[in-house]
Amino acid sequence: MSSYTTNNDQYENTRRKIAWRILPFVFGLYIVAYLDRANVSFAKLAMAKDLKFSEEVFGTGFGIFFIGYLFLEIPGALLVERWSARKWFARILVTWGICATLIALVRTPSQFYWARFLLGVAEAGFFPGIIVYFTHWFAGRDRARALSGLLVAVPFSLALGAPISALLLKANWLGLAGWQWMFILEGCPAMVLGIATFFYLPDHPRDARWLTAEERQCIENILEQEKKQKQKQKQAARRSALIQALREPNVWWLALGICATNIGGYAFLFWLPTTIQSLSGGSPSSAAAWTTLPYALGLLSVYWSGQSSDRTGERKWHCAGSMAMTAVFLAMSAIPGQSFAWVMFWLCLTGLAAYFWITPYWVLPTLTLTESAAAVTIGFINMCANLAGFIGSPVVGWLRDRGVANQICLLFLASCYLLGAVFISLVRVPPRISPSANLALAGPVAK
To answer: Is there a domain that residue 233 lies in?
Structure first.
């Protein structure tokens, strides 16, 4: 057996060991993160009854989270690289758990705004920090697969959180309403996991006692080789500053595409339980339970799109096509006179299409931009994606407070998805290389 085969086998065994140790735990962290971000959509109906908040107040509260989130996003990623991932993640989890539980105490709109803003500040840096953290553990060829697990966590957290939130909304213990218990009990896991993170997650392979000395050396050597290769490219990356990268049309099509889509997407997420209750006439808990169906289909969609786009090597039309189909299904749900069963049918198809674009989208920057341009603009694109969260929900809240029909609000969300599809369709993608050719060029691929 050649030394290359031996080294490759050793790396594969080490990679699997690392993946089984780290990925399930990080997956759990992201589930808790997204649920604490979005559970206010389930609580909204009961909160509105108790606190007399207007639709516009809720829309602003939904959106203001993203202003806080953008506040520490980049500094948080730098702290993971230069300080300590486990300490920073532990701090993030404990503080966002505290902020999430404090929403149970709000009584005025300004308190609600501050609680949501501080939750965004507390959670900021977690997702970009995870991306940086993975560079400490996984070679470049394996990081996309590792990160795809986090994308699955988004619809999974909502599909899991919807029925749990529905049950908690029925609680009435110790003089606290169900929505208050929902925030308290769904915020506590973040604090517990924060303490666990400090002891469970090592910063680097050299700190992992559960790896043998040979395994630690193997992964460190591979990552060090990649680091040296990137050092050679650093000067070229400096020359391609952000201002130059922004001259590339693809950067703007990608940024505008995800911004438009997320304006509709975040508003759909936050207003879905409200939409379902207004159509069904049911209780807040039953509306929360019904939202499980679109999110469960979204969970299947993330996996399906990743498999399909990887198998075919096609990304652009997977992305633009699913955005356009989301617009179609949302528009169909807005047709007047339909029964609740038919509306739920269209909303379920919306959930299926709405999560299909995510995985192929984040491959597009690496395919359509030069390496240096991609490096300096992915952060810009992600900022546009998060800024969209501050636009969509307040607009829907403003419309609803002024008596605009629910169907018109759904059509507004549909138009955002359609606009996103148009922008993505304008992205210029180089000629596609077949999957088999990609494997040949990449060398041995992890299984």
So the answer is: no
CA atoms within 13 A on the CB side of 147: 21
- Are 186 and 332 contained in the same domain? no
Amino acid at 373: A
Domain end among 227, 255, 271:
227
Domain span at residue 359 reads: 243-447
**Residue 264 CB-density burial (10 A; 0-12 exposed, 13-18 middle, 19+ buried):** buried
Give the pair of three-digit tokens for residue 239: 């020359």
Of the candidates 130, 136, 128, the residue with the CA atom closest to the CA atom of residue 223: 136
Joined tokens for residue 123: 């959670």
Among 177, 199, 227, give the residue marking a domain's end. Answer: 227
Please check whether residue 269 is in contact with residue 400, taking contact to mean a CB–CB distance below 8 angstroms. Answer: no
CB 360 within 8 A of CB 319: yes
Q: Is the pLDDT of residue 190 over 80?
A: yes
* Tokens of residue 283, six digits: 């209780």
Give tens-digit pLDDT for 323-350: 999 999 999 999 988 999 999 999 999 9
